[in-house]
Amino acid sequence: MKKNRLLAKWLNNDLSPDELTQFETSPDFEKYQKIKDYTAHLEVGDFDQNAMLSNILSQKKAAPKVIPLYKKWAFRAAAVFVLALGITFAMKVLIPQTETADFGKKTTFSLPDNSEVVLNSGSEIKYKKWNWDNNRHLELKGEAYFRVAKGRKFEVQTNLGKVTVLGTQFNVKARKNRFDVVCYEGRVKVNYADTQILLTHGQSVSFENGKQVKIDVSSTQPEWIGNQLCFYKENIRSLLDEVERQYNITIELNTKDTTSLFTGKLPAKDLNTTLQIISTTYHLEAKQVSKNKIIFDEK
Q1: Is pLDDT larger for residue 214 or for residue 126?
Q2: Could you tell me the CA-to-CA distances from 35 to 28, 29, 40, 46, 117 in Å, in that order?
Q3: Is 166 in contact with 184 (CB distance < 8 Å)?
Q4: 141 three-class SS
Q5: Domain 96-225 - what CATH class?
Q6: Cα dihedral across residues 232, 227, 105, 149: positive or negative
Q7: Which residues, listed in sequence order, are joined to residue 124 by a DSSP beta bridge?
Q8: The CATH number of the domain covering residues in 227-299
Q9: What angle do CA 106, 293, 249 make, to 5 degrees?
Q10: Does the pTM exceed 0.85?
Q11: How far apart are CA 166 and CA 154, in angstroms?
Q12: I need a surface site. Which of 24, 40, 260, 279 has the fewest CB within 10 A?
């Protein structure tokens, strides 16, 4: 501490003669003397505070990057749009597609492989677009006519049985307990319960309550495509159910005899003629009590 005090006084030339003698005899005096001699030749310019301030203020400051609020909303909107687009694509491709034909109407549409389908009245089809070419499978409720494009196995699943083809034209009908399949071109494999049948051009098979009926057909497409309803050994209740679907009406049947089977054709666009044929065949009297309701009574 004393040594530092002497050094400070020496630098300011404030040492007394005795203190100077003492300080000059110290071991570090020679080093201090060299430092003092060197610094004596240094010159320090005057410090100009005003110039320094002007220099600082004159320097350009980098402007902070500000993103306008509308751009933030634009980014968010774009993100939402992309997300919505992805969800829409998933819904269209992954979620099952449904095609329907209401009562009194028919629906025609194409599948992803350009196979054509015509849905009869009161029918529905479900299928998935995703990977369709490798998994041509659909579910049918009701009746439909298919013109299948060539490709991998094509399957039509119903609650009563399954139809498998490669490339052909065929008709499938599954109503209540009756299952009908007609092959118009190519070959069709039909599975019903534990039974498997192979149909070729012009062949048909029907199952009802476990019983099988195989018949030949001469038409080149389903009669209902040409607005005719074709029946083969069907009871009156099944007959009237089909008439209700085609004409979008309600039919009330008041008769005890419902076991007689009907084979023949009915028009799908002429209700009066249809009612006359049914009345004559079953000895009934038809009454139209409203625009959409018919009552059949025994004569």
Answers
A1: 126
A2: 11, 10, 9, 23, 107
A3: no
A4: strand
A5: mainly beta
A6: positive
A7: 100, 141
A8: 3.55.50.30
A9: 10
A10: no
A11: 6
A12: 40
Give the three-state DSSP class for 134.
helix
Distance CA(117)–CA(185), nearest Å, equals 15
Do the beta carbons of residue 144 and residue 248 sit within 8 Å? no
User: What does the alpha-carbon distance between residue 154 and residue 167 come to, in Å, rounded to a whole number?
Assistant: 8
Find residue 132's DSSP bridge partners: none
The DSSP bridge pattern shows strands 162-165 and 211-216 to be unpaired
The beta strands (E) that lie in the chain are given as 97-101, 107-110, 116-119, 123-127, 136-147, 154-157, 162-165, 169-175, 178-185, 187-192, 195-200, 203-208, 211-216, 228-235, 250-254, 261-267, 284-290, 293-298
Name the token pair of 53: 């301030």
Of 102, 138, 137, 88, nearest to 248 (Cα)?
Answer: 102
- Quickly state the pLDDT bin for 181 (edges 50, 70, 90): very high
Q: Between the CA of residue 205 and those of 3, 122, 148, 154, 179, what are the distances in Å?
A: 124, 22, 19, 19, 8
Token pair, residue 216, equals: 């030949």
Helix (H, G, I), strand (E, B) or coil at 282: helix
pLDDT-derived band at 58, boundaries 50, 70, 90: low
Q: Tokens standing for 296?
A: 């059949």
- Each domain of the chain, given as residue ranges in start order, spans 1-38, 96-225, 227-299
CA 179, CA 184: separation in Å to the nearest integer? 17
Say if residues 198 and 214 touch (Cβ distance below 8 Å). no
